[in-house]
Write a structure and sequence with these properties.
Rossmann fold, alpha/beta, binds zinc ion, about 350 residues, 2 domains, Quinone Oxidoreductase, Chain A, domain 1, 16 strands
Length: about 350
């Protein structure tokens, strides 16, 4: 089968022939129908996210059809349409047992990072990470659901948004756009911040009450003005010190700040902003399997719109192109999906 293999930072992915993986007794083999490319994949190619074992097949936003079933697996049939939760936890450490399997004590084991992923014709997943999807969800939407939606959903669940809470969201990429919608579903009033007007326009269509173009207005000042004193919650989806600092300054006393964007290094915070404001700073990484049934329902009932976010569909043979589109922002991408069966146009 064909797979897009990562050989290390600075090197393009190699689309090459590899053997179809052998199915373990608790695994299912999935014929990949769609695999989302994530900004974290761009980070891997640039070396700002390091993968210890290479070569590896990238792709952690996977949907497809069950092609083969391990001998101990129950509840699946060949041809079932499924979405895959990429994070594979140990299942028995204290963190796993208390609903925090995304930060499992064993360390991260993620399909598409430490295990071969979905930028391939077939991929393997433990049956416990696989969820059936209804016909009302396309494979492209199901792929996006597994990370671009599941990650902000998880973060918002940790924040416990109350109806009427002001939520300012920095970064209107794939995850930010999903955060807008999930915050809305929770009764939050959303302010979207970005540098590009076309993204802000889409954020409004998806439920942002206000938007701020940070190249034209100071997002902190404008948020404080719109909310009459500061947002209840700020979320950062970019991973830059500057926007983290802005997020911290955007919330009112006793506000909450959530970091989701992947960054590197350190950022400076003013004592005044945390201590005297009695602010809560949160981080959230990755996804948990328990969220998947609800995510699938939210998308299949149209409460969350993922179709609108898929701006590019690319064949597997052009996997490098998919990453380049995100990296260089070719054609205003929000989410890029790779489809093994897609032909080069
Ligand atoms: Zn991702
Ligand atoms: Zn664990």
């Amino acid at each position: 089968m064909k797979a897009a293999r990562f050989y290390g930072p600075g090197k393009p992915l190699k689309v090459e022939d590899v053997t179809i993986p052998k199915v373990g007794c608790n695994d299912v083999l999935i014929k990949v129908k769609a695999c989302g490319v994530c900004y974290s994949d761009v980070h891997k190619l640039h070396g700002s996210v390091i993968l210890e074992h290479t070569p590896i097949t990238l792709g952690h936003e996977i949907s497809g059809e069950i092609a083969e079933i391990g001998t101990d697996v129950k509840g699946f049939r060949k041809g079932d349409r499924v979405a895959v939760c990429c994070m594979v936890p140990c299942g028995h450490c204290q963190l796993c047992l208390t609903g925090r399997e995304n930060i499992c004590a064993r360390g991260e084991v993620t399909i598409g990072m430490q295990l071969d992923g979905g930028l391939a014709e077939y991929t393997l997943a433990p049956a416990g990470n696989v969820f059936k999807i209804p016909d009302t969800i396309s494979f492209e939407e199901a792929a996006i659901l597994t990370d671009a939606l599941a990650t902000p959903y998880h973060a918002i669940r940790l924040l416990c948004i109350k109806p009427g809470d002001w939520v300012v969201i920095y970064g209107m990429g794939g995850l930010g756009m999903c955060a807008v919608q999930v915050a809305n579903v929770n009764g939050g009033r959303v302010i979207g911040v970005d540098l590009f007007d076309q993204k802000l326009k889409m954020a409004k269509e998806l439920g942002a009450e206000y938007t701020i173009n940070a190249t034209k207005e100071n997002p902190v000042r404008r948020t404080i003005e719109l909310t009459k004193g500061g947002a209840d919650i700020a979320m950062e989806f970019i991973g830059l010190a500057k926007t983290v600092q802005q997020a911290i300054k955007s919330v009112k006393r006793s506000g909450k700040v959530m970091l989701v964007g992947i960054g590197k290094g350190v950022f400076n915070v003013d004592w005044q902003d945390i201590l005297f404001k009695q602010l809560s700073l949160f981080g959230c990484y990755g996804v948990v399997r328990a969220d998947f049934p609800k995510l699938i329902e939210l998308v299949s009932t149209g409460r969350i719109n993922l179709k609108r976010l898929i701006t590019h569909i690319v064949p597997l043979t052009e996997a490098n192109k998919a990453i380049e589109i995100l990296d260089k922002k070719i054609g205003d991408p929000i989410r890029v999906v790779v489809k093994p069966e897609e032909q080069i146009k």
